[in-house]
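User: Look at the shape:
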Amino acid sequence: MKGKHLKNIFQGNILINKKVADILGCKNEEDIKYGWFTQDIYFETFFYLTKRFGDPVIYDDYKDAGTWHFKVKDFAFHVYMNSSWVNFIIFGKIGNFELYSPATVKYQRRWRDESDKLIRLFSDEHNDKEKAILKQLFDKFKEENHIDEEKITDEEFDEKYSYSWYKFVNEYNNTIINVDFSEFTKKYGEVYQNAYTRRALRVLEKFLKNMLIPIYVRDVPYNIKGRISDEEANFYSRYENNIEIIFEEK
């Protein structure tokens, strides 16, 4: 169950960062975006998880501090510590590559509808329709950039104009597809969600709250965020047995 045959649901996805920040506490949007806000509880997390569950799995002594594997419902949860901060990873049946944003879904749909007018940017071979369009586009590109095709070698063109030419063709495609990403993002959000991802986040929330349950060294309470007061310990004790968590030892 340690992620084998399952897919990383939220890889590169800000939704999981926002959930972790909401439960464990973080207000800096820039830190949340990149996930490094958990650096503030780095050593506290290591102490708490080791004390409560035992030693982590070490895959690379040089690159990571350890990974704890958990089975929660029908998900595999990994708490992975790199050299600087803590990562919470959820594996399930649906992978991140299937969770496109609403704007991307619309873009792909429009691409299929207009495919006979578009240029495949990363294809080495083009059909006759693409070749005809590319010739028109290239003539326009040469004119706008004052390029004399007889006086420039292929190497010189690639060095000076390859990126500009790529952008030129890409802008042509985007004009044909005509999807306003900012409009879709404002209306539907940056990241696609469905019933499965929403359920995964609900399970994550219960898991994180369970990590707030206190453990004691003598009479001093600690949770994943570090040392806490007796009042906090009493409050967080409410999450005892809020969800079944199975720790999978190495």
